[in-house]
Amino acid sequence: MNQELRSRTRSFQRFFVSGALVVCLTAAAQELPTAQPESVGLSPERLERIAATVQRTVDDKRIAGAVTLVARRGRVAWFKAQGMMDREANKPMRTDSIFRICSMTKPITSLAVMMLYEEGAFLLDDPVSKFIPEFKNPKVLVKPASGQPYTIPATREITIRNLLTHTSGLAYHWNPDLGTMYRDANVAHGILAYDGTIRDSVQHLAGLPLLFNPGERYEYSLGVDVLGYLVQVVSGKTLDEFFRTRIFEPLGMKDTHFYVPENKLNRLAAAYTWYPEKGLSRFPDTPIVEGAFSYSADYPYRGPKKLYAGGAGLCSTAADYARFCQMMLDRGKSGNTRLVSRKSVELMTQDHLGKVSPDQGFGLGFGVDGVKSPLAELGSPGEYNWGGFFYTAFVIDPKEQMLTIFMAQLHPTGDLNLARLFHTLAYQAIID
After folding, report:
1. Rounded CA gap, 169 and 157, in Å?
2. Fewest beta carbons less than 10 Å away: which of 82, 119, 192, 338?
3. What are the E-state strand segments in 326-378?
4. φ and ψ of 188, to 5 deg
5. Rounded to two decimals, what is the model's pTM?
């Protein structure tokens, strides 16, 4: 904490309890609107349970550190960094630490798609082959009980809606049926250095069979990477440029990048692994290999840096991602800037899977909870959310006008449930 911030901290001590003090000042340093918790219907004493739980997890050496943020009614009421950003270098976690957010990239890419949709570039049920011809005439993999696998023509083409809802028939490298094909065809997934562009990867992917006919079921997939390339094709800009000029700059997301700039690398949190037999360890210098799936932690700053992976590539801060979430909570608007219409936000945040997935609620880029079965934990039906591979997560709750953001850097996580505990502790602090 610099001298100016120390001075400000002392001047505010007579107004706030210690926990709320840290929250308000760190949020102010990030230029986010802040509020005393009580003014937005939250208990400062109950919010302190978040700090106690995170600290216990740090002390137990299950994570190195974390940043937690809770905002309600457009104002941040809790914003705290705990533990270490880099244990080996003895660097404390900072509220402006940068995290690999991985699949939390997907909602941003989905927003970019909806921005182009609103400009009349396509309809959601248009086949993606209209813009990426390599996806014309897809084939589906068949694995008989005996004999060699073969392919048959798909019953329909992949639509843009299929890509947004993970019903395209595409998969990820960990899929036992398609993963080896993806690896051998040099298909990227975004969390490993890659010597190629998103165009290269998507064109490789388009030549491979699907897991099932589009629309038949839900399978979390590389479909959003395809959407990232679609944004490039339709807009005439790289995905990096589209994000920067159309989303990040209007929202003030100054620390969100595919590749962390050299002058910000000192804020990139170190990544860790946790295995029962080894405990918490710094992520190795070489990629971890799990079957056909390999992943690293150095991709944000090493390698060719040409891949803009719409499904997993971004790094960001809690404050930056809060700006994105608040825009969604404000129904597509940030200040005087509107990115998408209220109607698009409504469409994005309702369940689109229906009977295709009886248990999973999923919209256009977001998981949707409490719409098919009662909530499992505290929250509100209709809240929407997602998380990232290296243990980051967010929830947006229109009913309570509330958002929660959790940022750590850990994979694998074992049986750790800290992110869910944090969300529950944020909700138990509601007092109005």
Report:
1. 10
2. 119
3. 333-334, 337-338, 367-368
4. -85, 155
5. 0.92
